[in-house]
Amino acid sequence: MHLFLIDLYVSVDMLSPIIHVLNKKQKILICGINPNQSFKEDKIINSVINKNVKYENFIPVGNFEKILLFIVDIIKLLPNFVQKKIKFFWEFLYKKKAFSNVSIIENYLKQNNVSSITYEESSAEKYIELFFIASKKMKIPMIKIDSGIAAIKQPLSKNRLENSSYFISPSYFTIKNKILKNKKLRYIGSIRFTKYWLKKLDKIFKIEKIKNKKIINVGFFTKYQSKENPGTLKLIEKLKNENLANVKTREKPRDLYPLKFAYFYREDYNSSQLIRWSDIIVSSRSTSVLAEALIRNKKVVLLKYLYDESKFSNLYKYKYINKINDENDLIKNLSIIRKSKKFLRSKDKCLKDILIDHKNEKKIIDDYIKFYSSL
Predict the structure, then answer these.
(1) Do 293 and 369 have their domain in common?
(2) Orientation angle between helical segments 9-22 and 195-204, nearest 10 degrees
(3) Per DSSP, which regions of 150-230 are E strands?
């Protein structure tokens, strides 16, 4: 049995494609480690569940914690205006409170005959450490999945390999232009950023028909707690008020509050839907989801004047990606950006650089199946 640990939505996004390619022949257990959020009703999670896949809302806990979780479930039913006043409570539960221990986790792994444990890199460390201690005792391999792609220049630090037997990366780590090798590293690409998986998402999530193709559709990826967010919102309002474009937004899905009032879960479109709907995708930051926009042949804009990443972004060097120096620069050139057919080779080069084997999705899928079959 392969155990997959689900925390915030990014783990649903990154792990579900792997589960999907394994669930034909492998037994899989999906288990939540986030007391604030349950993805039991999530469309992506439900799309990968079959006779070989079981879903459990939360890890096993002690008797006192069962009572606490029951109270937490009742609090989740309170209206949103109350929830917003007790954000500190949800932050405490997520960041500070541990509901389980190593002994309970060990029994859980034995009962389910777990042969591997997989989690996404940004998952809550307090639970990952419990599973890692238990996995070492029981000699069960623990697999850490990179939470995105190499959109930002950063060396592979030692702590990124901690709490894992293997680290699966969609991009190559390099030192002095040479691929970094380590016994824990597995360079087998990302199923999340394959056309195979994008077609699956298109079947799950629909978008509205575009009635007037003359009007430019602009999709914004936002981050409400970021320093550049006020400037982003100002630009969005200007585009809307002056009828310069149809605009939709998508909040970065790392909100740790219950899904009932989490910002990202109440929006009309998820990231994939927004990209499909848009002619132009706008972001202030280099983020992994921009790879999907490139794969879908969408124009991509980075708001350099709000957040200059020229010194540490891996995306700034590609001419296909437009770097905007002021608000008017974007407004004046919306139509030009939309119609432009320049620098297509630059887009292909970008995808080749940031995604291993991105044009050979069969190899990526086969490599994942082989890897998990060997555990």
Answers:
(1) no
(2) 110
(3) 166-169, 174-175, 178-179, 185-187, 217-222
Average pLDDT over all residues of the chain: 91
The answer to whether residue 310 scores a pLDDT higher than 70 is yes
For residues 320 and 172, membership in a common domain is answered with: no
Q: Residue 204: inside a domain, yes or no?
A: no
Per the domain annotation, does 93 fall within a domain?
no
Query: Are 284 and 327 within one domain?
Result: yes
Please state, in angstroms and rounded to a whole number, the distance separating the CA atoms of residues 185 and 230: 39
Residues 220 and 175 in one domain: no
DSSP string computed for 216-236:
PEEEEEE-TTSTTHHHHHHHH
In which band, very low, low, confident or very high, does the pLDDT at 305 lie, cut at 50, 70 and 90?
A: very high
Distance, CA of 64 to CA of 97 (rounded, Å): 13
Specify whether the CB–CB gap between 90 and 258 falls below 8 A: yes
Strands 299-302 and 322-323: parallel
Average pLDDT of the segment spanning 350-371: 94
Average pLDDT on 349-373 reads 94
134, 231: one domain? no
pLDDT at 264: 76
Predicted confidence (pLDDT) per residue in 210-250, tens digit: 767 778 999 999 988 889 999 999 999 999 988 889 999 99
- d(C-alpha 373, C-alpha 375), whole Å: 6
Residues spanned by the domain of 45: 2-60+100-190+357-373
CA distance 189 to 197: 13
Quote the CA–CA distance of 193 and 270 in Å, as a whole number.
15
Domain co-membership, 157 together with 29: yes
Same domain for 215 and 279, yes or no, is yes
Q: Which two tokens stand for residue 152?
A: 């930002």
**Which whole-number Å values give the CA distances from 200 to 24, 43, 180, 195, 273, in the listed order?**
15, 11, 33, 9, 12
151: pLDDT strictly greater than 70: no
Residues 177 and 234 in one domain: no
pLDDT for position 156: 78
**pLDDT per position as a tens digit, 250-270:** 988 778 889 888 877 778 899
User: What angle, rounded to 10 degrees, do the helices at 125-138 and 102-111 form?
Assistant: 60
Residue 214, domain CATH: 3.40.50.2000
